[in-house]
Specification:
This protein is mostly beta strands and 109 residues long. It is built from one helix and 15 strands; from the N terminus they run E-E-E-E-E-E-E-E-E-E-E-E-E-H-E-E. It has a single domain, classed as 3 Solenoid (UDP N-Acetylglucosamine Acyltransferase, domain 1), CATH 2.160.10.10. The N and C termini lie far apart (34 Å).
């Protein structure tokens, strides 16, 4: 049985999430696909990425041009896609597109 799609929540200050050309519930997301049971903190940003099921992106994270496979928790303040030299030390980075791939179940140190 599939879970329901994302829903935006409004409070007295207006919308709590923002999406541009995306399907999402929380955080700021642009031109991305977001799987089921994904948590993107309101202070996080995801741009041009594919986030698979059961991923948690914590506060102050910035994710750009990444594929994050299932069951990954991204620690607060993590940046992915902004320093390719650093990204290449931790992850697979496609030579042609520059897309960063974080494998299923990856545990950040």
């Amino acid at each position: 049985m599939a879970t329901p799609p994302a829903k935006f929540v409004f409070n007295e200050d207006g919308p709590r999430g923002q999406a541009v050309d995306s399907i999402i519930g929380g955080g700021k997301v642009q031109e991305s696909l977001i799987g089921q049971e994904v948590l993107i903190d309101n202070a996080a940003e995801v741009n041009g990425s594919l986030i698979m099921d059961r991923v948690k992106i914590n506060k102050d994270c910035k994710i750009k041009m990444a594929i994050i496979d299932k069951d990954v928790e991204v620690p607060p303040g993590t940046e992915i896609g902004y320093d390719l030299k650093q990204d290449k030390k931790r992850f697979f980075v496609d030579k042609e597109s520059g897309v960063i791939v974080i494998p299923k179940g990856y545990k950040f140190p």
